[in-house]
Amino acid sequence: MQEAQLVLILMLQRFDFVLDDPSYTLKIHETLTLKPEGLRIRARARRTGTSLRRSAVPSTPQKALTPQPARRLASDAAATPLLILYGSNTGSSEAFANRIADEAPANGFAPTVAAMDDYAGNLPREGAIVVVTASYEGQPPDNARQFVSSVEALQEGALAGARFAVFGCGNRQWARTYQAVPKRVDAALARAGATRLAERGETDSGGDFFGAFDEWWAGFLPRLREALGKEAAAAPAAAGLQVEYVKDGREGALRLGDLQRGIVVENRELVDMSAPNARSKRHLEFLLPDGMSYQAGDYLAVLATNPQELVDRVLRRFGLARDTLVVLRRDGAASLPTGRPVSCGELLSNYVELAQPATRAQVAALAAATPCPPEQAELEAMAGEAYGTLVLKQRCSVLDLLDRFQSCALGFGPYLDMLPPMRARQYSISSSPLWKPDHVTLTVAVVDAPAYSGNGTFRGVASSYLAHLQPGDRISLAVRPSNARFHPPADPRIPLIMICAGSGIAPFRGFLQERATQKQGGQDVGPALLFFGTNHEGVDYLYRDELEQWQAAGVVTVLPAFSLQPRGEVSFVQHRVWEERARIVELFRAGGSVYVCGDGQYMAPAVRETLVRIYREASGASDAEAQKWVEVVEHEHGRFVSDVFA
Length: 646
What we know:
Blueprint: H1 2-14, E1 15-19, E2 28-30, E3 34-36, E4 41-45, E5 80-87, H2 92-103, E6 109-115, E7 128-133, H3 145-152, E8 163-170, H4 180-191, E9 195-196, E10 201-204, H5 209-227, E11 242-246, E12 260-269, E13 281-287, E14 299-303, H6 308-317, E15 325-329, E16 341-343, H7 344-350, H8 360-368, H9 373-382, H10 387-392, H11 398-404, H12 412-418, E17 425-428, E18 439-445, E19 448-450, E20 457-459, H13 461-467, E21 474-480, E22 496-501, H14 506-520, E23 528-534, H15 544-552, E24 557-562, H16 573-579, H17 581-589, E25 593-599, H18 603-619, H19 623-637, E26 640-645
Parallel strand pairs: 5-6, 5-7, 7-8, 8-9, 8-10, 22-23, 22-25, 23-24, 25-26
Antiparallel strand pairs: 1-4, 2-3, 11-15, 12-13, 12-21, 13-18, 14-17, 14-21, 15-16, 19-20
Helix pairs in contact: 6-7, 8-9, 16-18, 18-19
């Protein structure tokens, strides 16, 4: 019995368990023992903050080229503990947490950075706690679920004496769930008796994402110091990033974190690019590294490089050559390769985001570095009330502004200091491991359009990078888990209702590939409907041959909608959903689940409203009753699952 308990404890410690069918009703199967009938669970290895920490790149220690002043920090005895917790699926919240940790020592704090789940049920009372978290369809990130449950279960007064602040990442396109988890955590900590050091901060990934964090942190840090009796840190004589140029030699290394090297197997165009206004969408296949596995519906994270022409623009602006070597130095942790020679080409290609919109504070810094009075005045106006329309809406990067305001005397070091680190992009996997367990495919819409700023063409960093890969190329990648409910049901007999547009077909190709493989293996598969919205039947009907084969085999019924070839009142996918509402009602009543994948600004809200409308018609419910029903079906039953993107 003790051995069984030990095994159970180890399993619960190392894996998260979720019901495969959240609406499962207990049925007893009796033979020699009593056991549940048809109960299936999914186990997924926990990915804690420590397991994802990047390892140092081994290298031969180098002698510093220039003697560096010693960093003045508070002594260990005088430093106050600062626990910085993050909840993050894509890395944004973790990056903000590390940013706080970078500045904490100089202000008298001893920082500890960890995933929220690492401290579930074990929050300290000394020092302070800062929580930075995102939401995922209104639910906690994968590494924050246990923390949220535990903190919401605390009794009043359980955290008396603790001090905290919460900062939330989100996207206003999902208005229903915007900042849902940060709000819950903030309220739960206060309810448990912890003292709130500052009002909850928030940032919108569709707005001034980094600038909003900068503004919140600049206002919170003085309050944190005051609450814990710390003096303001004296600004160092050489603040910010220092750049030292090297005449010869080259050394570069890329810190990949948990990413590993995969191999490109295939890269082909899916769209007839000879058609007017055709937009490229590509199918890519990769051989996964040894030991990497996935489920249909998961994500693939890829680490790209900046477009060549964008890097060249930066080099021209600062009068640098691609192979010019520099040494970067900064006190504390840094996402850039510091303390060793690195070429400007590698630095700008691999380590920093060049196309992110400039923050308000960055525009103000450019104005301060501009000696020309008219240009300075224009930049100051852009940093003020005109910021939203002239910078954010037009997605003007720092580079765009430097190209426009040529008198700005910003140096290369301060420019690099403004740039966020290069991040991995996530794409829905468009294959099933039942097809090939060590191969994975993506369906990628290539972003290549006139820039909103009016300065040339905007090319998506990752999509442009992926579009130019050739078979045999190596690429840094990693499988990321999606929403636990966004996978094909374990029982292939359960009906599927899939609704998507454009490259949103990706996960559903994986679902159908899995069902087709199961059917070929002799298993019974349930009925499936695929609603697919695209522009033109002869131009961008993605995977048409495969879909027709699967339809002929009885795996799926494909119901397309073509916006440039409207049929009656059917132009977009939501129109086809309404037209075929009788089929949807039939399959849903038969136990089917609805899956939606597409853009979160237009398509997904329109589809949701159409499904509410269908329920109202079928049940006679009021709009309020229908909205409540959808919430229950989505969050409690798990039979309406969305995977939407900005």
